[in-house]
């Protein structure tokens, strides 16, 4: 119990809405901040990239800082924000090479393996839907083998549309068909959850702590999981429905 930061204390289980597993066939998972700890990405974009970009432009570091911040603001929520090629062109930096410098921060979220295994045993389809560039996914898969625990992998770059755009979910049907009324999406991106709600995806969950060392997220619109372990109740029996107590 954290008395100094009460917002970090988990809510009582009764305050959380249970997943209706008897009405779920497909679970769509985000990658960064959902199945993988967002700490790596936060360190990369908030610290390493600004540091390296400014270092390469020593004549006017303040101008370089503003230029980078302006570009980040311009493309935030768009496919370019997640594109290795875009940031390589804009910064002149070896984006993938710099990611390797922080590779020791890449890690599965607590309970990720347990949840994905339980879903497999319960016969639920596990689909990764990520805005990450395919090269970034491949890099993180090499370190975590996250793709080995999933049935289908879909990058927004394959669909030419970020998840924040409602068109993503329509295009997803072409490569990984799903029934929205029998689908759960788990994603730390609130804008992605909102766009998914707009196309009728029935059950939606965000993440309270995308970065395991960061501040908690808050939302008035979506239920947030305190951890992926919140998905486990109801997945222990063959039908995926919680046993009566």
Furnish the topology, listing elements before pairings.
Blueprint: E1 26-29, H1 39-55, H2 61-75, H3 84-91, H4 95-101, H5 112-121, E2 125-130, H6 134-144, E3 152-155, H7 156-159, H8 167-175, E4 183-186, H9 190-198, E5 203-207, E6 224-225
Parallel strand pairs: 1-2, 1-4, 2-3, 4-5, 5-6
For this entry, give a set of tags:
245 residues, alpha/beta, 6-stranded parallel sheet
Explain what you see:
- The protein is of the alpha/beta class and 245 residues long.
- The protein has two domains: 19-37 and 107-231, Rossmann fold (3-Layer(aba) Sandwich), CATH 3.40.50; 40-104, no CATH class.
- It is 37% helix and 10% strand.
- It has nine helices and six strands.
- It has helices at residues 39-55, 61-75, 84-91, 95-101, 112-121, 134-144, 156-159, 167-175, 190-198; strands spanning 26-29, 125-130, 152-155, 183-186, 203-207, 224-225.
- A six-stranded parallel beta sheet has the order 3-2-1-4-5-6, sandwiched between helices.
- It is globular, with a radius of gyration of 19 Å.
Give the CA-CA distance, first to last residue: 27 Å
CATH superfamily of the largest domain: HAD superfamily/HAD-like
Low-confidence stretches: 8-15, 238-245
How can the largest sheet be summarized? 6 strands, parallel
Number of domains: 2
Summarize the structure.
The protein is an alpha/beta fold and 245 residues long. 37% of the residues lie in helices and 10% in strands.
